[in-house]
What does this fold into?
Amino acid sequence: MTESLMPLPAMAQTSASVPPAVLLANHLKALKLPTFAREHEKVAFEAAQDRADYPRYLLRLCELERIDRERRMVERRIRMAKFPHTKSFDTFDFTAQPSLNKALVLELARGEWIEQRRNVIALGPSGTGKTHAALALGLAACQKGQSVAFTTAAALVHDLMEARDERRLRMLQKQLASVKLLILDELGYVPFTAVGGELLFEVLSQRYERGSTLITSNLPFDEWTSVFGSERLTGALLDRLTHHVHILEMNGDSFRLASSRKRQNQPLPRRRLNPASN
It folds into this structure.
């Protein structure tokens, strides 16, 4: 008896009639290696010029693929964070904020505090760069491989109340709890209703020692009750937020006001805020 032969895969049956370059392009596309597909000919030419062996040729391609893949992942994390603008510390004027601990900020940009599930609270008057610093720390977190979500306090409370009315609150809470870093901007500009304050409290409580939260506020801690409308709720929230926290005090002059005064060549009035810190 002759052994029955297994049928060849369709790919193998047709490979003889298809040019190798076409097959290679199809394989690399199926394997999701776009940089291999785009760069293999150029790298092969360079490898031949350098008399590089096959392992070095493959190593160069793998390095290019990995660099490109990491770049795309960072871009994806930035899109998912929903930053209103992309900011970095390269454009942050530390000299205009002498109260800000620059060494601490640059240390935070390394991202270890997120791995440690610590929090950051930036306090200071409007226009002192709190949002810029928050965006820069968020960008650094994305570049370090961390998932980030950015929102204003008012927008988040609105989304939570809307989700509650539409019976999808638990799903939204789960999404907020899953990100490594939640950035809550402009806490204190708009007071919340009792329900809104409780919903925000629940989100922040769920993140306690499970994920990092960065909050910017124009109010010192002893005035947060005016936002949440409840001393009990505010006290419980601050107890959780400040258990593991880095506080950034930004009491300098407003960047926007300084720029406007400079254009008009007018003297700049000084403003001070002395937030309480734990």
Notes: The first helix runs from residue 10 to 15. The two ends are 87 Å apart (CA to CA). Strands lie at 119-123, 148-152, 181-187, 212-217, 245-249. Residues 4 and 254 are 83 Å apart (CA to CA).
